[in-house]
Amino acid sequence: MKLPKMPSFRLDNKRALIVGSSSGIGIGCATALADAGASVVLAARRKDLLDDLKNSLEEKGHNAETIKLDISEVEDVKKTIDSQECFDILVNSSGLARHTPAVDTNEQDFDSVIDVNLKGAYFLTKEIANKLIQNKRIGSLINISSQMAYVGGIERAVYCASKHAVEGFTKSMAIEFGPHGIRVNTICPTFISTPLTAPTFDDPKKIKWIESKIKLGRVGEVEDIMGAVVYLASDASSLVTGSSLMIDGGWTIG
């Protein structure tokens, strides 16, 4: 009997751009891809934090570069991607939240969230894909979305709207880019323990709500995302596109 060959999770000779890699989930994704063999390019607005991560990765023997980038500035995104070699992998972990009751939402907060979570994600994904298509290269493009792309949440009307929209353009881009061998997917985490979520976890009412929703009985850790991002970036997921990988502890099942 001839046995099937297990697809590789390795990312050797792949070049990966990780946006939002200065903290939290972004650091986890950059570390995971580097550990799997990818050369990583770290991008965010805070260059000093990127340099710290670069140094830590290089101490482990990994290849790392840094780029200062704000994905809400569409023209800067285009210029940056144009100036770079093709990326085989994109992980966009940039995100912004302005949590308020819906009746208190102001236009400035609305625009700020949409500019990063939707417009920035859209044009970043589009520019990476466009360069791959021009160079006749295949690739895997991953946006860090959220379980809130599938449910509603307390004081999260704008955030939920932005993440629902990310799921929509992911499906459409997957259809358009599929013939070019370019896959587009999202990862949808539940609440992950990071500095950004600390204010939420410090609120007894909110943590009670969160714990009541997560069927596995705990919030997420950055390490819970790392295996998923390597899977979607690698040949192990070569037939996966237009999909959302839920890492939500069962939140969205009921």
Describe this protein's structure:
The structure is a single chain. With 254 residues, the chain is α/β, with parallel strands linked by helices. The chain has one domain: NAD(P)-binding Rossmann-like Domain (Rossmann fold). Helix content is 43%, strand content 15%. It has eight helices and seven strands; from the N terminus they run E-H-E-H-E-H-E-H-E-H-E-H-H-H-E. It has helices at 24-35, 47-59, 74-83, 107-134, 157-177, 198-201, 204-213, 223-233, and strands at 15-19, 39-44, 64-68, 89-92, 139-144, 182-189, 244-247. The chain has a seven-stranded parallel β-sheet, with helices on both faces. Helix 2 links the parallel strand 2 (39-44) and strand 3. Helix 1 crosses helix 8 (223-233), helix 3 runs parallel beside helix 4 (107-134) and helix 4 (107-134) runs parallel beside helix 5. The N and C termini lie far apart (43 Å). The mean pLDDT is 95.
Write the layout of secondary structure elements.
Elements: E1 15-19, H1 24-35, E2 39-44, H2 47-59, E3 64-68, H3 74-83, E4 89-92, H4 107-134, E5 139-144, H5 157-177, E6 182-189, H6 198-201, H7 204-213, H8 223-233, E7 244-247
Helix pairs in contact: 1-8, 3-4, 4-5
